[in-house]
């Protein structure tokens, strides 16, 4: 069984060396940035389609970094295949757009739960089933963000995220090719704001629903690149600089989680 490679990730159990923890960025180019940030000796294992994987070590544990691409379908593939190989804890590190006033570009958002507008999670659980972060992961991410923010000088927020199945229409963006938003999503951003939704992105609900439904642990931390209310966005040249805010929060969170797991004797 160890020699069987996963169809999409091109990984097998021998390659991941018993890793039980994984970071899930969306962008393949962010994978080595994250991996080398916590382990300068990290190595690349595989790269196929949108899925790129590196392996490093943290607190004596093997930790994977696997990109998922954009959206729920590919994120579900990554979680499924990594879980089949023995990974039990997943932290998404990504980017998002701020909805609630007062959240600025460069700020970090930790997701407690997500609006399931992703589409993919419907294939795993009925609509009444909540997309919520695992408590241990959430607690560790808050602790990690607090520590990272003291060093990095950024602000962080904790709350609800809206996960959408599309970037343009589903997020009520009128700068699409057609410039048209169907009736269902007209006024959506204002409604989410009134419901105290902090931000929007495209993967959190998928990850959190799958993890809860399958008995895995999941959490999500993102950096804000766009303020929807003001129309402000990070310049392309500044993206890499502010991405480090979410990366450091995620790494410190994972470090805290591994330490807690070892202290309690409950390694996943």
Features:
268 residues, alpha/beta, Rossmann fold, five-stranded mixed beta barrel, 7 helices, 28% strand
User: What's the CATH C level?
Assistant: Alpha Beta
Sequence of secondary-structure elements: HEHEEEHEEEHEHEHEEH
**Category by helix and strand content:** alpha/beta
Strands of the largest sheet, in order across it? 5-9-8-6-10
> Given the structure, what is the number of helices?
7
Shape: globular
Task: Write a short abstract of this structure.
The protein is an alpha/beta fold and 268 residues long. Helices cover 33% and strands 28% of the residues.
Overview of the structural elements:
The chain is α/β, with parallel strands linked by helices and 268 residues long. It has one domain: Nucleoside phosphorylase domain (Rossmann fold, 3-Layer(aba) Sandwich), CATH 3.40.50. The protein is built from seven helices and eleven strands. Strand 8 (156-164), helix 5 (188-194) and strand 9 form a beta-alpha-beta unit. Helix 3 (72-84) runs parallel beside helix 6 and helix 4 packs across helix 7. The longest helix is centred in the C-terminal third of the chain and has 26 residues, at 239-264. The mean pLDDT is 95.
């Amino acid at each position: 069984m160890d020699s069987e490679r996963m169809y999409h990730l091109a990984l097998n159990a021998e390659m991941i060396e018993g890793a039980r923890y994984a970071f899930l960025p969306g962008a393949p180019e962010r994978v080595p940035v994250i991996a080398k940030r916590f382990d300068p000796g990290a190595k690349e294992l595989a790269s196929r389609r949108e899925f790129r994987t590196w392996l490093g070590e943290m607190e004596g544990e093997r930790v994977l970094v696997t990109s998922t691409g954009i959206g729920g379908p590919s994120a579900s593939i990554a979680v499924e295949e990594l879980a089949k190989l023995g990974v039990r804890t997943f932290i998404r590190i990504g980017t998002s757009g701020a909805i609630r006033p007062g959240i600025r570009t460069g700020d970090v958002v930790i997701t407690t739960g997500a609006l399931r507008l992703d589409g993919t999670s419907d294939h795993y659980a009925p609509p009444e089933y909540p997309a919520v972060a695992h408590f241990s992961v959430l607690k560790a991410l808050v602790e990690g963000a607090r520590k990272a923010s003291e060093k990095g000088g950024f602000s962080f927020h904790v709350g609800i995220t809206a996960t959408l199945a599309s970037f343009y229409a589903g997020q009520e963006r009128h700068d699409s090719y057609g410039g048209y938003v169907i009736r269902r999503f007209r006024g959506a951003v204002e409604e989410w704001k009134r419901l105290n939704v902090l931000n929007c992105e495209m993967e959190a609900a998928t990850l959190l629903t799958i993890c809860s439904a399958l008995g895995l642990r999941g959490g999500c931390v993102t950096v804000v690149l766009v303020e929807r209310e003001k129309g402000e966005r990070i310049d392309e040249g500044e993206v890499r600089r502010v991405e480090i805010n979410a990366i450091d929060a995620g790494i410190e969170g994972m470090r805290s989680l591994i330490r807690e797991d070892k202290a309690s004797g409950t390694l996943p």
